[in-house]
Amino acid sequence: MPWIYLALAGLFEVAWAIGLKYTEGFTRLWPSVATVAAIIVSIVLLAMAVKTLPIGTAYAIWTGMGAVGAVMLGMLLFGDPASPLRLACVGLVLLGMVGLKVTSGSH
């Protein structure tokens, strides 16, 4: 169950990271409310996951999911650069996340 909490926490992190763009500096009410709600849900789920998972592993995977998701959605939604080197770097983050999961034990 902690890995499910962590995966959901990561998805909500992506949501709030992308939501920041839509808040326009927290000047738009509803995108701001949704972004703050996603922040709270993400952190609560992360806290639930780290009851069992190693904090370093959980935090790195949580931030990695947020980073990869934000980069990919930035490319899709906002036209952020999608160079081969940038995509390779995203691949390295993913590889690191998988490595942490595999070496974290049987939790």
UniProtKB/TrEMBL annotation:
It holds the Pfam family Multi_Drug_Res. The chain crosses the membrane at residues 33-50, 57-79, 85-103. SUPFAM superfamilies: Multidrug resistance efflux transporter EmrE. InterPro entries: EmrE-like, Small_drug/metabolite_transptr, Small_multidrug_res. Keywords: Cell membrane, Membrane, Transmembrane, Transmembrane helix, Transport. It is a multi-pass membrane protein. Its main location: membrane. It is found in: Cell membrane. NCBIfam families: PRK11431.1. Belongs to the drug/metabolite transporter (DMT) superfamily. Small multidrug resistance (SMR) (TC 2.A.7.1) family. Gdx/SugE subfamily. This is Guanidinium exporter. It comes from Dyella halodurans. The gene is sugE.
